[in-house]
Design goal:
EC 2.2.1.7, alpha/beta, binds magnesium ion, globular, Transketolase_C, Rossmann fold, binds 1-deoxy-D-xylulose-5-phosphate, 620 residues, binds thiamine diphosphate, thiamine pyrophosphate, five-stranded parallel β-sheet, seven-stranded mixed β-sheet, 3 domains, transferase, 41% helix
Length: 620
């Protein structure tokens, strides 16, 4: 059946009785392919029928489907002729795990971060109407993503604009882990209502049985915006905002879904389809543990066990352990996550200290201001967050935290290149955006012991402080380099002359190797661990410029606004003769792929960096 799907709309040539078999083949295909490449399995298994139904009703690429986060767009990729791309899913040069306009005309909008789909869809709708075009716009948002503030800003706007717009709420009662919050509770209540079609039938029968009510009246009620549901479930959140609510709809039943989409297309104004699905549907291990199969590396299909079990502690593990230890000593310490308790390691903290743990939903902006409030009230909050997701809370960091110099600690995980998630998830801007903020202290550890020391430093520090560390295994080399972390001070590891290499955080391994290769080639080279990106250790810089002609900075952050530029600016300002060479990522969005490959592609691998340093030094 899958072979008959070569391009968009091919699914329409299948007979209705063939569709369940296609759904089964898609599931089998997804499990097999993702077991090899890794990817977002559970969310994709949950939306197979939903996606098929949309592709049966709508006409792509004319109609626009916008996937919130986009991690669930794999079936959409299959149905739009990209099946072969799954062999290289998320690999460098291969197919992205998220929708990409540059990949297909059927991908209407690039996503990766949550809660943007209703805004983007509404923009499309207005563009369509302004240009008198004729197409449908469908934004597909999950119940987890509906915890994000932007979704409500967009719903608010949609209800005023009253334009034809379809919002699909894919409700599987899960974010990455269990979904949280009042909206989630509200949806749970709606879920327990009868399914829409049954309900409609039921009410129609009742009306038919009332002698004075005939078919025309039933038809009129059916067509009114208030809908039959309104008679049964009053005061609905969406209806009261002026958004027609259709649901709950059984999301694994293709004919039901097709009927619902056809009905939604006829309704005037914004309409929300509340679709109930099961995360991980059809693959036992993923149904049982959807959080484990949300984003997963290669695994064994028979058991669901990972192909490459973790051997070493990650930086995230170290963070979790130190937080738990410190919380035992300090009852003012609290931890916040924006729906990432597993990814940030805070699940362990939640188990031990549930009262001091806050999962605020996918709400990074709120999390930061909430942390500011906690701090103002005398608690020491630590917001553990991925580097790329913290981007959206820039104003809250300035306006609510740093301006008042409040002691909020940011544990910035997934800093630097994250790899296979690609452009939207690379944590390559944080040194730039954090170091522009007055009062903010910015640190980065070179190895696991230094991370532990920095976390203790951050907890004790009486002001805003951010510690950035990468995804994956923590460096456990050179435990002997462990001098105390002192505010604003870098760490001299090897002192020589001629060339001084200053590295930031996890570029330690590469910097050590660069120094080794330089020495083997006969150069003298000092090695300094920056530790603090803000404030700069200007005393160390003054000292280095006395003995070194070339100062090299190494960081896994974009060059613009990064550590190297701050060092350059300081040396220019102070009239130093030393030359600075900045080794950083280019000012570009960096695609998906293995981190080692990406470093090579961007010139942050040991060989390229060593060659560049030698070349420049020879010209001095
Ligand atoms: C701004 C932002 N914060 C966090 C994430 C990480 N994240 C990706 S998917 C997800 C859960 C989404 O839940 P839902 O929308 O219900 O989709 P499901 O996985 O259940 O299909 C989270 C928290 C993100 N992508 N963007
Ligand atoms: C889609 C999304 O935003 C998350 O699922 C993300 O892919 C998690 O990344 P990690 O695998 O680094 O936790
Ligand atoms: Mg969900």
């Amino acid at each position: 059946m899958l072979e008959r799907i070569q391009k968009a709309n091919d699914i329409k040539d299948l007979k209705p009785e063939e569709l369940p078999e296609l759904a089964q083949e898609i599931r089998k295909f997804l499990v097999k392919k993702i077991s090899k490449t890794g990817g977002h399995l559970a969310s994709n298994l949950g939306v197979v029928e939903l996606t098929m139904a949309m592709h049966l009703v709508f006409d792509l690429p004319k109609d626009k489907i916008i996937w919130d986060v986009g991690h669930q767009s794999y079936t959409h990729k299959i149905l739009t002729g990209r099946k072969d791309g799954f062999d290289d899913l998320r690999k460098y040069g291969g197919m992205s795990g998220f929708p990409k306009r540059k990949e297909s005309a059927c991908d209407a909008f690039d996503t990766g971060h949550s809660s943007t789909s209703i805004s983007a869809g509404l923009g499309y709708v207005c563009a369509r109407d302004l240009q008198r075009e004729d197409y449908s716009v469908i934004s597909v948002i999950g119940d987890g993503s509906l915890t994000g503030g932007m979704a409500y800003e967009a719903l608010n706007n949609a209800s005023t604009l009253k334009k034809n717009f379809i919002i699909v709420l894919n409700d599987n009662h899960m974010s990455i882990s269990e979904n949280v919050g009042g909206m989630s509770d509200y949806l749970a209540k709606l879920r327990t209502a009868d399914f829409y079609t049954d309900l409609k039938k039921g009410v129609t029968t009742v009306l038919h049985n009332v002698p004075v009510v005939g078919d025309p009246v039933i038809e009129r009620i059916r067509k009114t915006k208030s809908s039959l549901k309104q008679l049964i479930v009053p005061g609905m959140f969406f209806e009261d905002m002026g958004i027609t609510y259709l649901g709950p709809i059984q999301g694994h039943n293709i004919p039901t879904m097709v009927r619902a989409f056809k009905e939604a297309r006829k309704i005037e104004g914004p309409v929300l389809l509340h679709v109930i699905t099961k995360k991980g549907k059809g693959y036992g291990p993923a149904e049982e543990k959807p959080e484990k199969f949300h984003g997963i590396g290669p695994f064994r299909v028979e058991t669901g066990e990972p192909e490459n079990p973790k051997k070493k502690d990650t930086y995230t593990d170290v963070f979790c352990k130190v937080m738990c230890d410190e919380a035992a000593r300090n009852d003012k310490l609290a931890a916040i996550t924006a729906a990432m308790e597993d990814g940030t390691g805070l699940a362990g903290f939640r188990k031990k200290y549930p009262d001091r743990f806050f999962d605020v939903g996918i709400a990074e902006e709120h999390a930061v201001t909430f942390a500011a409030g906690l701090a103002a009230g005398g608690i020491k909050p630590v917001f553990a967050v991925y580097s790329s997701f913290l981007q959206r809370a820039y104003d809250q960091m300035i306006h609510d935290v740093a301006l008042q110099n409040l002691p909020v600690m940011f544990a910035v995980d997934r800093a630097g290149l994250v790899g296979n998630d690609g452009e939207t998830h690379q944590g390559i801007f944080d040194l730039s955006y954090l170091s522009t903020i007055p009062n903010m202290v910015v640190l980065s550890p070179k190895h696991k012991w230094e991370l532990a020391d920095m976390i203790r430093f951050g907890i004790a520090y009486d002001g805003p402080v951010a510690i950035r560390y990468p995804r994956g295994s923590a460096c456990d080399a050179c435990p002997e380099f462990r001098s105390p972390v002192v505010y604003g001070k870098s760490e001299m590891l090897y002192e020589e002359r001629e060339i001084a290499v200053i590295f930031v955080g996890h570029m330690f391994g590469e910097a050590l190797e660069v120094r080794k290769q330089l020495k083997e080639a006969g150069y003298h080279c000092s090695l300094v661990n920056a530790r603090f990106v803000k404030p700069l250790d200007t005393e160390m810089l003054d000292h280095l410029t006395e003995q070194h002609k070339l100062i090299v900075t190494i960081e896994e952050n974009v060059r613009s606004g990064g550590f190297g530029e701050h060092v350059t600016e300081y040396l220019m300002r102070t009239g130093s003769d030393a030359r600075v060479q900045i080794l950083a990522l280019p000012d570009e969005y960096i695609e998906h792929g293995n981190v080692e490959v990406l470093r090579k592609e961007t010139g942050l691998d040991v060989e390229t960096m060593t060659a560049k340093i030698r070349k420049l030094y020879e010209t001095l």
